[in-house]
Amino acid sequence: MELKVKKVQRLDGVREAFYFPAIFSGLRLTVKHFWRNLFGSKDVVTINYPEEKRHVSERWRGRHRLTRNDNGFLSCVACYMCETVCPSKCIHIEAGEHPDLSVEKYPVVFNIDELRCVFCGLCVEACPKDAIRMDTGIISMAYTSRETFDFTRDLLRDSYDPKAHSNPKYGDYDLPSPSSQEEALPNSQGVPAT
Amino acid sequence: MELILEIIMIPAVLATIKILVIILMFAMPLGTVLTLMERKWSAMIQDRVGPNRANIGKFTGHGALHLAADGLKSIFKEDTMPKGADGFLYFIAPFFGLIAGVATFAIIPLAGPIGDFTFQVTDIEPGLLFIFAITSLSVYGAVLAGTSSNSKFALLGGTRASAQMISYEVFMGLALMGIFMVYGTTRVSGIVDGQNEYWFGSLIPMWGVFTQPLGFVLFFTALVAETKRAPFDAPEGESEIVAGYFLEYSGMRWSAFMLAEYVALVGVASLITTLFFGGYHVPWLHLWEGAPQWLVTILQVIKFSLFTLFFCWFQIQLRWTVPKFRFDQTMALGWKKLLPLSLANVVVTAFVILAFA
Asked: Are A101 and A186 spatial neighbours (Cβ–Cβ below 8 Å)?
């Protein structure tokens, strides 16, 4: 078998041997960029991250939220579909009987371990009630302890609607801080107090 | 008051004052600022933002505080020495380059003389030969650092540095032969004054770059190679030998190497200005008769500083434009192309002078 040989075209000759034409054309390019950026950083594409944030599309799978129905209750009926389909086994649900008969079943415990979550979005697709969504636009969760990543039902509840903001700000400060999970419980709007 | 003036006018005291003023107020600050400017300018060239995070409260000064942050960091960093290193040589090596870079400014005039007073530390007869002697001293910094570090990468870097600098020294001298022939002296003030002549009445100043265009290109190339900056940065060679000869250094000694590089950069820029761009002479200023002396001096300092700044910028721009030469390419370029060219330049210059003078 004959080996295939690819002949590479090399630039040779006096023009290349003297370097200067190549150096000058290179200098023309770099000086152009230098002067453009010297007055107003026109070509710079950097996003100064903590101060500026990249626009995230609505389809982007960010942190989960639990939606509410028209009555203000959690839409979730604790059917375990998301927990079953979850490939990383990060959802933990405990069902309970609701005193309001129209609600029937509701999640007494709905925990998502965001450290285990792979953000595949299968739970959103599996949900028959459109109760869990990943459209909060929260792209970074940075906390100092493992426990804070274990998001409970009341921290996941629908308190933030990116569509309600004309100029959505994506940041953790738009949701209650998870550092005080117990404090968040009395304010729960998803489940009426029993 | 008169006593103080008398003490100041003692030549040795006066020279010391000039050294302090020129080095501490011109060379070192400019070199220090250039360490930051190189990072900012390279960012602009590459469409980046560059350093802008060091801050005091809300104040960042567009990254100016990085200078202070870098200085503080290197002062408080541990001054390490690798096992088996040659202690004495290891500790003195960083200062060879720095001293060589600073010594360049001894013969560079910042402005024209006022009476007996010169804006130049010393105007010695050998002039530029002194520069050759001093710049070849800076190779000791690299070689001593390379050999004393007890590190193979550093040794490779030192070897490359010595080979490269010795090769480029050869035609650095030859490239300036043309200048010596045209202006007929090695004394710096003579060369600078020679560039104050004009061709065609008062049309074109007889700057070195017009009388010796090839000599300018060759000398500039040789000086860039002497300062070991891109495209001749094979001795540092980030991609293959990490940082070359100063790989093992840390803290202030590492900073001394960096500062030496930038002081040498300023030195190159001021040398180029002095020898090829009229030095401190403002072109066509002689047409304005009766110009006050103080204004002329100020204009001369401004002109010299502007050209120096321009060539500092140009070297940085060149570094971020041209890719690095492989080491054998550096050698081939030096010995096979630039050395014959500089010899040809000497011969052609001699014939031209014979024909027209």
From this structure: no
Stretch (H or E) spanning A155: helix A153-156
To the nearest whole angstrom, how far is the Cα of A178 from the nearest Cα of chain B? 28
The ipTM of this complex is: 0.75
**Parallel/antiparallel/unpaired status of strands A105-113 and A150-151:** antiparallel
Interface test with B, best of A30, A33, A45 (most B CBs within 10 A): A30
Helix axis angle, B251-276 to B128-148, nearest 10°? 160
Cα angle A171, A177, A180; round to 5: 170
Q: For residue A25, which residues of chain B lie inside 8 Å, CB to CB?
A: none
Alpha-carbon gap, residue B64 to B71, rounded angstroms: 12
Q: What is the per-residue pLDDT across B288-310, written as a single tens digit (0 to 9) for each?
A: 777 788 888 888 888 888 998 99
Which residue intervals of chain B are DSSP H helices? Answer: 2-8, 11-22, 28-45, 65-76, 87-103, 128-148, 152-183, 188-194, 208-211, 213-226, 238-241, 251-276, 293-319, 327-332, 339-356
* pLDDT tens-digit series, residues B264-281: 888 888 888 888 888 888
Say yes or no: A193 contacts chain B, CB-CB below 8 A. Answer: no
Whether residue B317 lies within 8 A of chain A, CB to CB, comes out as yes
